[in-house]
Design brief:
Order of helices and strands: EHEHEHEHEHEEEEHHHEE
Strand content: 15-25%
Largest sheet: 5 strands, parallel
Structural class: alpha/beta
CATH topology of the largest domain: Rossmann fold
Distance between the termini: 38 Å
Oligomer: single chain
Shape: globular
Number of domains: 2
Number of strands: 11
CATH architecture of the largest domain: 3-Layer(aba) Sandwich
Length: 233
């Protein structure tokens, strides 16, 4: 954790202080803070972060507005912080590149537990034996995290990449939504259908020639999803 760098983007000093105190108690020392969207974008342009807390209601621009701009600069895990609780708000965050969603008010211990779970999964993924996966026009290098589609390098949000990597590691295997959520997100599945559906859609938009007629990440109606590996080299 000593090399892990976090960014808290929120205009409430109480949130900064609460998260900083509990994170430092858990061994996270490199913590930056920003109170505005512009400051967050500036920091993301000059520093490399592992995880970012991003509040929706910022004084200059909304977190939803800058989330895709941050995603262009980094593959860090992004946690959306907001008092909004509707499925539409959650879907908006995921669609714009966020990886997880924390509703205010929240239990700081629970938030830190989720941070550690995300970072632990990404660390385990990175230390696995490196492999190159090739499925038709899709190429994934698990060592560098590089994804090439039809000869062009594409950038994926952290959780979308983890989802793709899981599929690559288990070609032609069918997974239900619950199995995907528990294996990729590392949490018990509580009917998070929208989370899976949004991330599958984002993945298809990045790697499929025609996302409306997917050839790689295919749906088996009523059962789940699989990576069709017929084109594997």
């Amino acid at each position: 954790m000593e090399n892990t760098r976090l960014l808290i983007v929120d205009d409430e000093q109480a949130i900064h202080q609460m998260l900083r105190i509990i994170l430092q108690k858990e061994g996270f020392e490199r913590i930056d803070t920003a109170e505005t969207a512009e400051e967050a974008l500036r920091l993301c342009g000059v520093n490399s972060y592992d995880l970012i807390f991003l509040d929706v209601m910022l004084p200059d621009r909304s977190g939803f507005e800058i989330c895709p701009l941050i995603r262009e600069k980094t593959n860090a895990t992004i946690f959306i912080l907001t008092a909004r609780t509707t499925d539409l708000d959650k879907l908006s965050g995921f669609a714009l590149g966020a990886d997880d969603y924390i509703t205010k008010p929240f239990n700081p211990l629970e938030a830190v537990a989720r941070v550690k779970a995300h970072l632990r999964r990404h660390k385990v993924s990175n230390v696995k034996e490196s492999a190159n996966y090739q499925f038709g026009d899709l190429s994934v290098n698990s060592s560098s995290g590089e994804v090439i589609v039809r000869g062009v390098k594409v950038s994926l949000p952290a959780q979308v990449y983890q989802l793709l990597l899981f599929f690559c590691q288990h070609p032609n295997q069918l997974f239900s939504k619950a199995q995907l959520y528990e294996n990729v997100w590392g949490e018990d599945f509580l009917g998070e259908d929208n989370t899976i559906m949004v991330h599958i859609r984002k993945l298809r938009e990045k790697i499929e020639l025609d996302p409306s007629k997917p050839q790689l990440i295919v749906t088996v109606r009523g059962l789940g999803y699989k990576l069709a590996a017929e084109g594997r080299n």
